[in-house]
Amino acid sequence: MKVAVIMGSKSDLPVLKPAIDTLRDFGIEVEAHIMSAHRTPELAADFAKNAKDKGVEVIIAAAGKAAHLAGVIAGHTILPVIGLPIKSSTMDGLDSLLSTVQMPEGIPVATVAINGGKNAALLAVQILALKYDTLSDLLYKFKEDMQLKVVAADAELREELSK
């Protein structure tokens, strides 16, 4: 089980760190790189073309501003690509979101919320869980734990408000 996490700039790492941590929590190997769709297009294309042969099964590509990284990666691989738009200094990340989600027919990129690193990781886990039953079990437990936290918070709230 291996996911590649590609970021357009090292400044994207704070958004990617929760994704990397989440993937590792599920026991998934993470390969992380910095590549740019515009400044290192050949490097990005070469990585995408060879990722499957290196054992990568899903790619998360994160970029801000003119966020074409996920699309460039998707254009050079048959692996699932998850686009993670990064909030930039302009337009609160809307530019990144639109650059990531608006892909031409035949080049799909699954896109999560702006700065949604953890959800990008969880989507990658869900994709891999189709192949790895151990991940399915861990995802069920993860969702159960989320539910228990909400139920506990609800009980705590009702207790506080009943005083």
Automatic annotation (TrEMBL):
SUPFAM superfamilies linked: N5-CAIR mutase (phosphoribosylaminoimidazole carboxylase, PurE)
The keyword Cytoplasm is assigned to this record: no
Principal EC category: isomerase
Coiled-coil positions: none
Known pathway: Purine metabolism; IMP biosynthesis via de novo pathway; 5-amino-1-(5-phospho-D-ribosyl)imidazole-4-carboxylate from 5-amino-1-(5-phospho-D-ribosyl)imidazole (N5-CAIR route): step 2/2
Enzyme Commission number(s) from the entry: 5.4.99.18
Catalytic activity: 5-carboxyamino-1-(5-phospho-D-ribosyl)imidazole + H(+) = 5-amino-1-(5-phospho-D-ribosyl)imidazole-4-carboxylate
A GO molecular-function descriptor: phosphoribosylaminoimidazole carboxylase activity
Residues annotated as binding substrate: 9, 12, 39
PurE domain ranges (all copies): 1-150
Function description: Catalyzes the conversion of N5-carboxyaminoimidazole ribonucleotide (N5-CAIR) to 4-carboxy-5-aminoimidazole ribonucleotide (CAIR).
Protein family (similarity comment): Belongs to the AIR carboxylase family. Class I subfamily.
UniProt protein name: N5-carboxyaminoimidazole ribonucleotide mutase
Organism: Christensenella tenuis
Organism phylogeny: Bacteria, Bacillati, Bacillota, Clostridia, Christensenellales
